[in-house]
């Protein structure tokens, strides 16, 4: 008789084979191109040249500028989205339980494609035709430049946070609703209520979800491309060049395919490392 483990492996085999075929081949091809001298002229016959592309990427100041931007952007947006999502989930949980249709309304920003979100805010914040600068000037005589090099980073962080906080809200609300009611009742019998109940009982139980939400949003923020590219592009002097925009520019505008794919491999390593770290943390917590 086949063991359950063997049965699971047999059932999972078609999915594994599909993923290897669809993702494995492009990944191997990217690795080959990243160590090759390749352009659109010799795309079918790249010349293996070693790790020169990686050395060129690591010696490029623009690459490190893009890494710095992506890291700061990813950490800040992940922290804001996690904190806001946790606060809204705990604060709005009683209201959402009574009127669950509110969750659909709160999810609407997340449904919009990031590129369309960037285009929408490009029109709203435009210095000459945007309604927000117009009314700020009419009502308060303020004329802020939301997309200037000095303000672009803050503007991008706010837009990203507004769009993706509903994602963390959904995660935290699901986890918050799954906390057994008898645990809360036992804590309240012991006199634990309000803020103390949240910090000493509910928050520790939400910690795995908090870690997952933060890491997922950091990875998504670190590799951000479409909304920034549509809204402001690489910015003045590359001030808003994320790592994904750096790769896009090297690939399509400079036709330096090897360098672009070397940078993409480094981006993959960062994302994989973050996922591995969260897996280790959750496994350690489960066995503790």
Give short descriptive properties of this protein.
single chain; 76% helix; 2 strands; mainly alpha; MetI-like fold; 288 residues; 1% strand; globular; 13 helices
What does this protein structure show overall?
- The chain has 288 residues and is mostly helical.
- It has a single domain (60-287), classed as MetI-like fold.
- The chain is 76% helix and 1% strand.
- The chain is built from 13 helices and two strands.
- It has helices at residues 4-34, 52-58, 61-98, 101-106, 108-111, 114-124, 131-140, 152-177, 181-189, 194-222, 226-231, 243-253, 257-287; strands at residues 36-37, 47-48.
- A two-stranded antiparallel sheet has the order 1-2.
- The chain is globular and about 75 Å long.
- The mean pLDDT is 83.
What does the secondary structure layout of this molecule look like, with pairings?
Elements: H1 4-34, E1 36-37, E2 47-48, H2 52-58, H3 61-98, H4 101-106, H5 108-111, H6 114-124, H7 131-140, H8 152-177, H9 181-189, H10 194-222, H11 226-231, H12 243-253, H13 257-287
Helix pairs in contact: 1-13, 2-13, 3-8, 3-10, 3-12, 8-10, 10-13, 12-13
Topology as a string of helices (H) and strands (E): HEEHHHHHHHHHHHH
Rounded mean pLDDT is 83
What percent of residues are in strands?
A: under 5%
Shape: globular
Number of strands: 2
The helix fraction, in percent, is over 70%
The biggest sheet amounts to: 2 strands, antiparallel
Q: Classify the fold: give the CATH topology.
A: MetI-like fold
Write down the domain tally.
1
Quick summary:
By secondary structure, the chain is mainly α. 76% of the residues lie in helices and 1% in strands.
